Amino acid sequence: MNIHEYQAKRLLKDFGVPVPRGYAAQTSREVETAISHLSDDEKIVVKAQIHAGGRGKGTFVDGYKGGVKVVDGRDAALEAAGHMLGNTLVTKQTGPNGRKVQTLYFTEACEIAHEYYLAIVLDRETAQSVIIASTEGGMDIEDVAEKTPEKIVRVPISPTMGLRHHHCRRVAFELGFEGDQVKQFARILTGLYKLYWEKNAMLVEINPLITTPTGDIIALDAKISFDGNSIFQHPDIQQLRDLNEEDPKEVEASKHNLSYIALDGNIACLVNGAGLAMATMDIIKSLGGEPANFLDVGGGANEDQVTAAFKIILSDPNVEGILVNIFGGIMKCDVIARGIVAAAKNVDIKVPLVVRLEGTNVEAGKQILKESGVALTPADSLVHAAEIITKQVSEQKG
Q1: Structural domain ending residue among the three candidates 48, 79, 108
Q2: Which residues contact 374 (CB under 8 A, 6 or more apart)?
Q3: Known catalytic residue: 116?
Q4: What is this structure's pTM?
Q5: Catalytic residue among 6, 23, 105, 117, which?
Q6: Which residue out of 5, 136, 205, 320 is catalytically annotated?
């Protein structure tokens, strides 16, 4: 689960990380109130709040340039807000449809002596948290890693030992901090790790972390992502979820405890098990098809969940074919079969449907489908199923 920058900064502040003064607004009246808290004699930063990077280089659909503006005084901030609030911002990460800006964030501008990058992220390969830092802040860390990897500092943190003083000192020295700045940085990194650990975050990122001409270190921008599987442990974090920033299909899937991620393709996948779902998408891709989604119904889905899964799949206008790939273990094939039949009765399935069942109660499942009268094509293996659905979708287009 992602949150907005203004929410992330509030959390950082709660954990002792210094951030600029800032105020969020969602209506015209709130905009005026937010701006009134900032001095008319200083520069004000107006930031569109969407769950996507590249806001500063983005363009609104009406041609207005930039989702992050540094302006002189309140009147200019009010004018920029008028262009942004309620408008749709398109960036590299939003795709061509963009995201509607429903919240703005107004902050005091800071003088910048230097920009740094600082993050803590979960490394699944080593099952450890890793501090990632660089003197090249304000840039995409992927570009830095590709072009100047020697400028990236990586420090693993043992889950049993946690963050230690030597971690803080090492990263501080690698970034070139000296004297009091080492102490400042240690406090920031300690607060960042405490937030990361206590709130079950998957990523906490400050980009840029800046130094001012007077030597202060401040978090100028922030991004935090949380583990969706642990959100129930943190009601305060759960309240930060902005459903307007999520795909409606993904929101609906979460209501039925389905793992769903929308993709750009046209062949929908309904699979049980994340690994099998990934393999299914890979095989479709290898055969020239394009997966429309990742959908894992899990090991214990019931008929209602399977029916809901079909409804979600078919709500995507890009879907031109459906591949059901079930390997029954805890999940029984006859349950899936009844779910498919129930979905066919409740939802008008007008696209090709290929079903591959294997495992527990597979013969019963196949018999249910055979006697149902549902228009589908059975398949004996995953490769066979993928070949059929990609061919059928291709022939539809031809």
Answers
A1: 108
A2: 340, 341, 344, 349, 353
A3: no
A4: 0.75
A5: 117
A6: 205
